[in-house]
Specification:
This protein has four helices and six strands; from the N terminus they run ββββββαααα. The protein has two domains: 56 residues, no CATH class; 72 residues, no CATH class. It is of the alpha+beta class. The radius of gyration is 29 Å and the shape is elongated. The strands form three sheets. The chain has a two-stranded antiparallel sheet with strand order 1-2.
Length: 141
């Protein structure tokens, strides 16, 4: 291994000895990360990336399945939140006409609005992530 100090930066070059036709040759591999790495380090590095991509893709697939299944429910919640039914339910709650043990977060003035706003922001973020991902060069494009 060689270490060079240039402009306050330390550059470490890793030498890899290969036997080619009975002759040892030193091979240095430049990494995509800006440094030098051996073949084994490079394979290990990209294997870790592959594992992360596969894991994230599986989690995203699950999340998207769950997310897509609630889209019709989001529309129902949105329609209820702005309806006369919601106003009546809200007024009855304020007047104490509903059971005290009834879960009623939907009648708070902020819960449904916040949930719908967060959902909308998540849709925008999803579009941004997908758009940015599609801009990059991909082996499938």
């Amino acid at each position: 291994m060689q270490t060079n100090v240039a402009g306050g930066c330390i550059l470490i070059l890793i030498d890899c000895m290969l036997v080619i036709g009975g002759v040892y040759k030193t091979v240095k591999y430049k990494s995509d990360r800006g440094g030098m790495m051996t073949q084994i380090e490079r394979i290990t590095y990209y294997e870790e990336i592959l594992d992360k991509v596969e894991d994230a893709s599986a989690k995203m697939d699950e999340a998207l399945e769950s997310f897509s299944q609630v889209q019709s429910l989001v529309k129902e919640l949105d329609a209820y939140y702005g309806s006369e039914d919601w106003r009546k339910d809200f007024e009855d709650d304020e007047a104490g006409r509903l059971p005290t043990d009834l879960k009623r977060g939907v009648l708070s003035e902020d819960a449904a609005y916040d949930a719908l706003t967060n959902h909308h922001q998540l849709l925008i973020r999803l579009l941004e992530v997908v758009t940015e991902a599609m801009k990059g060069k991909c082996c499938l494009s």
